[in-house]
Amino acid sequence: MDRIALLTEILTQNPNDAFARYGLAMEYSNSGDTDRALEEFGKLLTAHPDYTAGYFMAAQALAKSARIEEAKRMLTEGIVSARRTGNTHAQSEMTAMLEELK
């Protein structure tokens, strides 16, 4: 069974599994299926707004697709999440990426 199928099966059993949802989004992103990746990142962040890595990776997928304004918005939301959770490392990475996109 491939990773997408495995993660989909896990999510069928437990749709609220944040780690599996993030993994599925990353699999789609890594395979170049940006739209499906962003759909999964959206589900992840709606259910788990403090899953800070989701914002950063979604922003990277958006930037690779030349969707710069959307990437900036995602990073801004991610920075808020990182501050809220005290994740200074993620905050620093997203701030740096945001500056690069300006």
Query: Averaging pLDDT over every residue, what do you get?
Result: 96
Distance between the termini: 42 Å
What is the element string, with H for helices and E for strands?
A: HHHHHH
Helicity level: over 70%
Radius of gyration: 13 Å
What report would you give on this structure?
By secondary structure, the protein is an all-alpha fold. The chain has one domain: Tetratricopeptide repeat domain (Serine Threonine Protein Phosphatase 5, Tetratricopeptide repeat), CATH 1.25.40. The chain contains 6 helices and no strands. The protein has helices at 3-13, 18-30, 34-47, 52-64, 68-85, 88-101. The chain is globular and about 40 Å long. 32% of the residues are buried. The model has no long low-confidence stretch (mean pLDDT 96).
Secondary-structure blueprint of this entry?
Elements lengths: L2 H11 L4 H13 L3 H14 L4 H13 L3 H18 L2 H14 L1
Short note summarizing the structure:
The protein is mainly α. The protein is built from six helices and no strands.
Fill in the keyword field for this structure.
102 residues, mainly alpha, globular, Serine Threonine Protein Phosphatase 5, Tetratricopeptide repeat
